[in-house]
């Protein structure tokens, strides 16, 4: 009986436990998750700079409408209208609050 106790102290029980497998899956998930986050943090600025340089080469403003806005007095109000039906994309129709219109209406 003493021999069996010595053998158990040298070589402990090697049965499979579900808790050990769960910890292994958790470690693998954390490894790949942290690798994905690191890749996203590195790749995002690189891809952004590539997109900006390509749109600058094409002569586009990034597809943005460069309309500026400003403030006017409370007594003078007007409406700006732009339409896809007008002959030029830069055509603007200005309508004052008294109904008068000017521009390309």
Automatic annotation (TrEMBL):
Membrane-spanning ranges: 25-47
Keywords tagged on the record: Membrane, Transmembrane, Transmembrane helix
Protein's name in the database: Transmembrane protein
Source organism: Rhizobium loti (Mesorhizobium loti)
Lineage: Bacteria, Pseudomonadati, Pseudomonadota, Alphaproteobacteria, Hyphomicrobiales
């Amino acid at each position: 009986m003493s021999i069996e106790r010595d053998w158990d102290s040298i070589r402990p029980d090697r049965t499979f436990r579900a808790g050990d497998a769960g910890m292994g899956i958790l470690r693998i998930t954390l490894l790949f998750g942290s690798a994905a986050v690191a890749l996203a943090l590195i790749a995002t600025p690189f891809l952004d700079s590539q997109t900006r340089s390509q749109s600058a080469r094409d002569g586009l403003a990034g597809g943005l409408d460069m309309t500026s806005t400003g403030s006017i007095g409370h007594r003078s109000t007007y409406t700006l209208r732009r339409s896809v039906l007008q002959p030029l994309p830069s055509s603007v129709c200005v309508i004052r609050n008294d109904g008068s219109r000017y521009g390309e209406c």
